[in-house]
Amino acid sequence: MGKASQGPVAVLDPAQRAEHATKQILRQLFETIEANVEGARQNRDSECLHDLRVATRRTRSALSQIKGVFPESEVADFKARFAWLQQVTGPVRDLDVYLIDFPTMRQRLPAPLQPDLEPLYQLLLAQHAKAQQELALELASPRFKQLLEDWRAFLDAPDAPNDSGAASAEAPPTQARLPIKQVADQRVRKLLKRVRAEGRAIGEDSAPEDLHELRKRCKKLRYLMEFFQSLYEKEQIREQIKQTKRLLDNLGRFQDTAVQAQHLRETAELSGSEAQLPAATLLAMGALIEQLLQDQARARDGFADVFAGFDSEENAARFKALLVEDSAPRRKRARKR
Known about the structure:
- The protein is mainly α.
- It has two domains: 144 residues, CHAD domain (Alpha solenoid), CATH 1.40.20.10; 149 residues, Alpha solenoid (CHAD domain), CATH 1.40.20.
- 75% of the residues lie in helices and 0% in strands.
- The protein is built from twelve helices and no strands.
- The radius of gyration is 23 Å and the shape is globular.
């Protein structure tokens, strides 16, 4: 089973052109996608699909967040096509998660209720088998094969010429020729500012959607720091990634428990027509939904403290030190590699 690392491992030179460095990051992610396609298609291991989806999500994030490096028409086209890939792989991954978590969920119920969840488990297995068949067709489709072929050609194409007067259907991207360290600092600063602003705006009465949006923003910040981690001092960048993950963990618990509870609700509502679950199973599912909602409430109650840690003066000082304009010493070290 061929698998590659989920995360980007590109070693970048701070003076490297942004276009070239970004393609280097994207190639690492493409290797992960290609390494896991067959495993995901054949359902060899749930981690194959997981890694493929993570690399796809990171690819979309890189295209969205490393702005002004590639022509906008190409960026928009590939963003839409990778969004399709994320969409068609979603149902199987969601069911993978439910099945992996099922033993833990079952044990959360009182012992007399645990056997009543077995019909739900069998239903999830049947849903998974159907969704996996549909996914296998998508991953063998001409549409997917064309996406891989076009993306490979895009990544292998030569960088834009230095002569801005060269013929082109679009104006040259504004950031393509800048040093990647300059672009990285700009993008991390801007996204960090938005995360802070959105987090500070969340109060006791904020809608769940506000926390979900903040989670998406935090993921983008984490991905940027991981894309560019070779440009910064190792311990500094790792600490800031860790601080961001702590906030993401809280927001993830809030969102994931809500999604699981909603899925159980929808399954129960379909029981009269499609699911045909016994009454005892529906009662056990109701008890499980109650526990999930309690977990969600605890995550929500803990948000203020977790965000306060992320938004602290100490963490702000660490970010400031991380993003200080000191690329010259790093450039010298990079050339010695």
